[in-house]
Amino acid sequence: MTDPSPPPEPTAPSAAEAAPAPPVSPGEVLLEVTDLRTTFSSPRGPVRAVRGVSLTLRRGRTLGVVGESGSGKSVLSRSIMGLVPSNATRTGSVRFAGTEILNADAKVMRSYWGDQMAMVFQDPMTALNPVLRVEQQITESLHEHIDLTKKQARDTAMQLLESVGIPEPARRLRMYPHELSGGMRQRIMIAIALACGPRLLFADEPTTALDVTVQAQILDLLQTMQQDRQMAMILVTHDLGVVAGRAHDIAVMYAGRIVEQAPAASLFAHMRHPYTEALLRSIPKLEMSKHTRLDAIGGRPPDLVNIPEGCAFAPRCPHAQDRCLTEDPQLVPDPADPDHLYACHFPVHGVLAAATPVTVGAASGADAGASS
Amino acid sequence: MLILGRKLLQLAVVFVVVTFFTVFLMSLVPGKPEVVVIPFDTTPGQSLQKQFREDNNLDDPLPIRWAKWAGAFVTGDMGNYYSSSDTEPVSGRVKHNAPTTILLIIYTQVVSLAVAIPLAVVAAYRAGTKTDKALNSMAFGFISMPNFATALLLTYWLGVKLGWVPTQGYTAPSESIPDHLKSMVVPVIALSLGQIAVYMRLLRSDLVATLQEDFILMAKSKGISNRRVLWRHALRPSSLTLLTVAGLNVGTLIGGAVVIEYLLGIPGLGTLVGEAIFSRQYVALQSLVAIIAITFVLLNFLIDYLYTVLDPRIRERAA
Amino acid sequence: MTATTPKARGIEEVPLIVEQIDPELERRKRLPIGAWLAGGWMVLIMGAALLAPVLPLNDPNAEVASIPKLAPGQEGLIFGADGNGRDMFARLIFGARVSLTIAFTAVILALIIGGLLGLLAGYYRNWIGNVLASLFDIMLAIPALVLALALVAVLKGNPAENEGGLSGQVILIIAICIVSIPALARITRANTMAWSKREFVTAAKAQGATSGRILFREILPNVLPAMAYITLLGIAIAIVAEGGLALLGAGVDPPTATWGNMIDAGRQDMDEAPFIMFIPIGAMFITVMALNYLGDVVRTHFDVRESAL
Fold it and tell me: pLDDT per residue over B20-55, tens digit each?
């Protein structure tokens, strides 16, 4: 089931890149999401998990989507990709390489999945099939999207494993997931996602389930891959520290909406939304266990079935005033910086850039500031 | 090795307890056993009844009697059938009848699984839809139909009304394959219906649980077809309970075979058990029950082994 | 049954798998119409069985029809007459009386004995529990029907000198009861084990509650739904078992009407008058289905895990 469009990507480093790809030159818009809304029907009523998100992603760039559990960030990435259950309804628009794919039929979506867009899931313990060998799990999508012989597929799989930094790839191919360490498994998941050379990679909390010591390695790997292959990447995390230094742009989500969006440098330098500020304060320190999450923000995220009137963050916001409880702020550009958007009636003037307590991402902060 | 040893010990315990229980049960039969088993001894001086007492160590206390019986059993001597003038070794009839029952059970399991697995996959994939509900109702119907009732209705419909299959009797495959298959249609369907329903419901509920696993979403995200996601990714991790139950059900099937073989005149082990009970051939019955119990335990070993084939994580732990 | 357990998740991870709904949840919301139908049938058939002697019915053993195998609806016999000219309807109701008495009594006795053993085996995780548990497993290695047959054979003893022995009904009750015990005990044990690990049991222990109190006041009420479920199923199986034993000639002695005896008699006349066989089969089928269905309602309503069984 190969997409019948022409040439292999020129930058392709391996045979795995043989996937067809309608040309999108570097920097060109690959993904355009407009007013995306995702609602799940549930016995309690509609769960409005994504409430009107718009974003643009260019080739070769990384967008960090940050928010607490329950902010809708994972649903957002799955909604863009179309991996939603049948009780979900999506409206709005998702254009991928210029084609509207929001309500494309399953067959069309399957030709995109794994081939044009792929996802790295949160927990490599549960996201790899326990009863299939690594080889089968990698070559499966190769066979699905590219016409390869068994031998070619295996060679490609070996190269992929090598490229994600797995020693003795031949031996690992014959193993089952439970025989590998967590970090190793996550590398394999990345290899699977990259197998057909996708142009858009979703990484959904790719390090949350991992040991702190390997988190940085996996993030570095993702970043390297993204740069080498000039992919567009959406990096979903609850941890601002993860995206710092790795994402070109950052979108902060709360209750299914983007509440602040800006190039990374600008966001860290002049954060305007109180929620972003709170998130930054709550970045886990290295010594904390991996389950410690954002305890610094008092209260809980709103119930997505009953989202309060006004600003959804108001009940937890230290700066909230009467207006916030009645009037829902819109996402508007900062008058001083049109690339910096926020949704707040009483924005803060945080200048925390110097204090950016990058934890896990410390290894390479290279091009965070080099954004548009 | 340790596991194998434990399994063997388990087998031994089951053998001892089950056979001791049967010996004990038989000792409860009121009256002199030799008179119960051989009510009309036509041999001169009623020597057969004496021989019966001797053969079965009836003058020994219960445990010794059991031990002597067990000693003979493990060397293949399953005791004798006694008629009014003669004896016949039980092992001969067992050898003659066992293949029929084994075939019947194999056919039944194959048919049951071959029907139940695809239905379960469809029901799980369409969980909550009309298809799922229709299949669930069908399962209720199947489960509620006693196997002998199915056998009788099919005999009437396929045998009496349509004349497609014989109403009675059995043809061995060595005689004629088509006739053999015809003679197996009614018993196999009769024994399969209930099992299809049980297997289907079990596998469906395990599949529904598996389909919520992350690795299924991951598999979907590779763009592979739903068919492949279901059959390749979801089925195997979901089939362990099914396997256990399919193994345990062999016991139920043997029980079912007793009735079905008797109703349809099929000369299998079930018929032997029935005969042994009604002609009060307690020695034979004891051996037959022992054979059935041992088969049952051995099958469960096999299933434990199959587990490790299906799920590599268990293989790891076992090694 | 996979070893992976889903992690605790935030609200955003509402079911995210394709084609994933919770039909169990939907079914639980209200009692389905089927439950009313099944319950209604059970009330009807049990009521008729209980009241059979006072209902205006023909004598089930009397020849009332002008000819044997009288077709249903004629001579005022709505289900016709059997091979001996006896009123099929009367036999069906009186048959229900015997068949249901056997099934209910046997299973309820088995539930009391097996349930108690299962509770003990599940609660005491020492050698007592282990020995009991192994015993249940071993008993299950003999197919229930084979064991029941053997028990009937032993209890009936030698037909030549059968005087003052147990009545056929009592023999069947004992046989079916004994073969049901290990299965009921095993299931009760599994559920007891699951509940014994709960916090409230630990809490009760910490407060110095006696074992008896914990077993009967803390654990038993929670295990009851599972026991109710398996009892309903067990009764259904017992009704079928009576039929199977009757067909093998190990049932209640004729001419007593039981559903099994009626089916056995009907199969002799299958060629000419299949309705004689169909009618008791139909009654048995509907009753068994009703019991299965009610069992399922109990299971879904109380969320009894099938895999724990």
Answer: 888 887 777 777 777 777 877 777 777 888 888 888
Q: Which residues 138-157 of chain C have a CB within 8 Å of chain B?
A: 138, 140-147, 149-154, 157
Across the interface, of A69, A84, A209, the residue whose CB is closest to C16 is: A84
Q: E-assigned strands of chain A? A: 29-40, 47-58, 62-66, 88-96, 99-100, 117-120, 200-204, 232-237, 249-254, 257-263, 332-334, 337-342
Task: Indicate the pTM of the whole model.
Answer: 0.82
Tokens 């039969």 found at: B29
Which residues does A contribute to its contact with C (CB < 8 Å)?
A: 40, 42-43, 47, 49, 68-75, 78, 83-87, 123, 125-126, 130, 209, 301, 303-304
User: The domain containing residue C83 runs over which residues?
Assistant: 39-57+74-308
Kindly state whether residues B248 and B274 are assigned to the same domain: yes
Contact C157 B31 (CB under 8 A): yes
Q: Residues in chain A, how many?
A: 372
Residues 196-225 of B with CB under 8 A from A: 213-215, 217-225
ipTM above 0.90, yes or no: no
How far is Cα B275 from Cα C83, in angstroms, rounded to an integer?
A: 27
Task: For chain B, positions 82-111, list CB contacts with chain C under 8 A.
Answer: none
Percent share of chain A, pLDDT over 90: 33
Taken in order of first residue, the domains within chain A and their CATH numbers are: 29-237 (3.40.50.300), 272-371 (no CATH)
Asked whether residue C23 is assigned to any structural domain, the reply reads no
What is the number of domains present in chain C?
Answer: 1
Number of helices (H), then strands (E), in chain B: 15, 2
Question: In chain B, at which residue ranges do the beta strands (DSSP E only) sit?
Answer: 80-82, 87-89
pLDDT along chain C (309 residues), means of 10: 34 34 51 87 94 86 82 82 87 94 95 91 84 84 85 73 69 93 89 81 81 82 86 93 91 89 90 90 94 88 57
**What Å distances lie between residue A248 and A191, A282, A333, C137, CA to CA?**
23, 21, 18, 63
Which of A42, A85, A126 is facing C16, going by the closest CB pair? A85
Digit-coded pLDDT (tens) for B99-109: 999 999 999 99
| B12: containing domain | 2-90
* Residue B297 placed within a domain: no
A95: three-class secondary structure by DSSP: strand
pLDDT digits (tens, 9 = 90+) for A37-64: 999 988 888 999 999 999 999 999 999 9
Contacts of B44 by beta carbon, 8 Å cutoff, 6+ apart: none
Name the CA radius of gyration of chain C, rounded: 23
Interface test with C, best of B144, B160, B253 (most C CBs within 10 A): B144
3-class secondary structure, A96: strand
